[in-house]
Amino acid sequence: MKKWISTLALAAMSLQGFAQNEVTLDASQAKTQINRQIYGHFAEHLGACIYGGLYVGENNTKIPNINGARKDVIEALKKMKIPNLRWPGGCFADTYHWKDGIGPKKQRPSIVNAWWGGVTEDNSFGTHDFLNLCKELGTEPYLAGNVGSGTVKELSDWVQYVNHNGVSPMANLRKENGQDKAWGVKFWGVGNEAWGCGGNMKAEYYANIYRQYATFMTDWDNGSKLFRIASGANSKDYNWTEVLMRDIPHHMLEGIALHHYSVINWDKKGPAANFTEEHYFKTMQQALFMDELIQKHTAIMDKYDPKKKVALVVDEWGGWYEVEQGTNPGFLYQQNTMRDAVLAGATLNIFHKHSERVRMANLAQIVNVLQAVVLTKEEKMILTPTYHVMEMYNVHQDATNIPVEIKSNDYVFGTEKLPAVSVSASKDQAGVVHISLTNIDINKGQEISINLKGITAKAVTGRVLTSAKVQDHNTFDNPEKVKPTTFTGASISGGTLKVKLPATSVVVLELK
Ligand code: AHR
């Protein structure tokens, strides 16, 4: 009898592990495009992001490069599909004087990178290097202007230097430096974190400064109207968004930024790889908080801009942990595990859900810094779990978002809980439907029943990213420990899709 009871209990427990999550996709309501720009990245002069990571110099004979930019990294990023790249910061942007980074390299001044490790910045990677790298990557540049320690003239000159095709002082200088044709850069940040490292300004003061800077940022004649992005709120500083939306005339403003990092505690961030379940749960709380943040910032923006003309640009997001032991604390070098993979998947699902207002975003940062997609060590390069998620999800770029209703099981930790499952879906230009799912529960798999309203599909294929432990990651000795594999846990019958997600997993499905 006792044995029979315990067998029953075990069966109930495993059923509980696969209790049904209910999802409805309604293709008849699909109308908003998922702007590919939400798949953007961020490269700052910080640690080994630029020097060593993206750029090794044109005289490097050990690491194959195109005009100094690493070939291996370029190839990997192209495959991942990177729509835009933000540069040169971050905090560094408000110390950066772009004229230091043009002209013959030997004549460029060296400065101290005061924000990040106090290292010497020799300015060998400058405007031409960055914009030519973007061309190589097939990505749109997003330049962050210096408002904190720069001048209106300096930023206005930078716009003229990169965007003016006629005869003008800056266009002439650009030509002298070997670039005849203007690059035509559309995306411009007007300062960064103006409330902090960008000048410790009050919202009202920054709104005035923004108006002044934006006035002198000329569209020029290259057919591409500037997309000016105001330095936005620090996470839940809703007042910042309120003041900017109220005080900046909307014809001078194309986007407002928002920065939110999934950090447990700024004084005690916890390790990047050897973390506990408590660390993990708290990171996920912060990551899923992005949904509430976007809803609340959007509600404020809607009040002033009901037609959603101004975009919300989440131009810094990602996980932020303690640096790896023995590395420079100012370099923000951290490992990247399955925790980061599910964080990325869940965040992208949130961005898709809010695609009407969130039309651009930038993961921080692209190589060797924070939640990087690529890590390098001299001539070696590895792809992180986050890379694989960004690559798997790229099928959603510019596709039409399909609204999702979801009833999820809970991922329970102690007395707290979070929804275990997140889902988003889209229909691409060829009519193909893709569905992305994440299970953040590290202990239980999830069975999901998906009602496919308005979608006729007979077959389903997919890929999954998962690993035995949430701490699993790739290393230079074992670069393929975490990589996508074919997913066989989905079946379709009579308008219903059944999916069995393993614990800690990210899945992307294609319906045929
Ligand atoms: O991404 C690292 C830093 O985080 C950026 O320089 C700054 O904008 C933010 O505080």
Automatic annotation (TrEMBL):
InterPro entries named in the record: Alpha-L-AF_C, ASD1_cat, GH, Glyco_hydro_b
SUPFAM superfamilies given in the database record: (Trans)glycosidases (SSF51445), Glycosyl hydrolase domain (SSF51011)
SMART domains named in the record: Alpha-L-AF_C
Residue ranges that the Swiss-Prot or TrEMBL entry lists as coiled coil: none
Source organism superkingdom: Bacteria
Keywords: Carbohydrate metabolism, Glycosidase, Hydrolase, Signal
Membrane-spanning residues: none
Residues of the signal peptide: 1-19
Keyword Signal: yes
EC number: 3.2.1.55
Annotated catalysed reactions: Hydrolysis of terminal non-reducing alpha-L-arabinofuranoside residues in alpha-L-arabinosides
Domain Alpha-L-arabinofuranosidase C-terminal: 315-505
Oligomer status and interactors: Homohexamer; trimer of dimers.
Similarity field: Belongs to the glycosyl hydrolase 51 family.
Protein name: non-reducing end alpha-L-arabinofuranosidase
Protein source organism: Flectobacillus longus
Lineage: Bacteria, Pseudomonadati, Bacteroidota, Cytophagia, Cytophagales
